[in-house]
Amino acid sequence: MPRKGNPHKLTPWKKGQSGNAKGRPKGSLDRATIVRYWLEVEQAVQNPLTGAPERLDQASFIVLAQIKNARAGDLGAFKELMDSAYGKVVDKSSVLIDAEVKTEEHRPRTRAEIREHLKGKGFDVDTRTFIK
Q1: 3-class DSSP state of 112
Q2: C-alpha separations of 128 from 80, 81, 92 in Å
Q3: Which residues share a beta bridge with 56?
């Protein structure tokens, strides 16, 4: 369907003109501030682990509920708790192989050099398997 109006005015603003010249109003809150506010709100709730009535902020209540889910066998909840507490696990298996070949002068360039490099790492190039 063709556009109506002047085909030379396909953009509503002139070059260099902003569509939101005034920007976000001063004093308005961003999403992170709003979320932090609501996570800090305290409420009288039943502790999901102990069952005792307590006054908890929302963040603590959510963490305790996540622990309860993890204890019940929810692996996703367990993974999230572990990542939050100790950081995400980094796969170091590829880093060890690459670390030995990092410098430019030691990097294998030809197919023969690559085959020799892989054989030295315990890899059978013909069967494409690691030798145990």
Answers
A1: helix
A2: 36, 38, 21
A3: 43
The CA distance from 123 to 61, in Å, is 51
CA distance linking residue 122 with residue 132, whole number of Å: 8
Q: What residue segments make up the domains of the chain, in order of their start?
A: 31-86, 93-130
**Neighbouring residues of 53: CB distance < 8 A, sequence distance ≥ 6:** 44, 45, 46, 47
pLDDT tens digits for range 23-77: 888 888 889 999 999 999 999 999 888 999 999 999 999 999 999 999 999 999 9
List Cβ neighbours of 110 (8 Å cut-off, separation of 6 or more): none
Q: For residue 51, report the phi and psi dihedrals to the nearest 5 degrees.
A: 80, 0
Beta carbons of 109 and 101 less than 8 angstroms apart: no
Residues 6+ apart with CB under 8 A from 78: 70
